[in-house]
Design a protein that fits this description.
globular, 142 residues, 49% helix, 6 helices, Ribose 5-phosphate Isomerase B, Chain: A, five-stranded parallel β-sheet
């Protein structure tokens, strides 16, 4: 299960991304928002991070205008390793090296086709499990 949420700035891209991922066979749970009415991104970031930490969702995807606010919020939550990705290489590298569990996307800076590719790579890439990366993740977690 993949948890997904956005604020008003990411709402339209979230709807397109949900369709794309469901067409690929992913099961998603939409934690909001549900319109383009102005709202506060931290409220929705916390819904997804809580679902990932509880095990209700394996990974999360968060969208806002730039992805920055969602990324900052998600990374304040102990146990969450969120990555703001605007390219395919970063999406793969963050999964391989950082075992990230939340992908953040900026709807005003990343077009739908690129966002689809980034999400596909993020969700399809397994953590390498390499000892040096495990050591670094342990240092992040403190």
């Amino acid at each position: 299960m993949i948890g997904i949420a956005s604020d008003h700035g990411g709402f339209a891209l979230k709807a397109e991304l949900i369709k794309h991922l469901e067409d690929k066979g992913y099961e998603l749970k939409d934690y909001g928002c549900f319109s383009e009415e102005s709202c506060d991104y931290p409220d929705f970031a916390h819904k997804v991070t809580d679902a990932v930490l509880s095990g209700e969702c394996d990974k999360g995807i968060l969208l806002c205008g730039t992805g920055i606010g969602m990324s900052i919020t998600a990374n304040k939550v102990k146990g969450i390793r969120a990555a703001l990705c605007g390219d395919c290489f970063s999406a793969e590298a963050t999964r391989l090296h950082n075992d990230t569990n939340v992908l953040c996307l900026g709807a005003r800076v990343t077009g739908p086709e690129l966002a689809f590719k980034i999400a596909d790579i993020f969700l399809g890439t397994e953590f390498s499990g390499d000892e040096r990366h495990l050591r670094r993740i342990a240092k992040i977690e403190g």
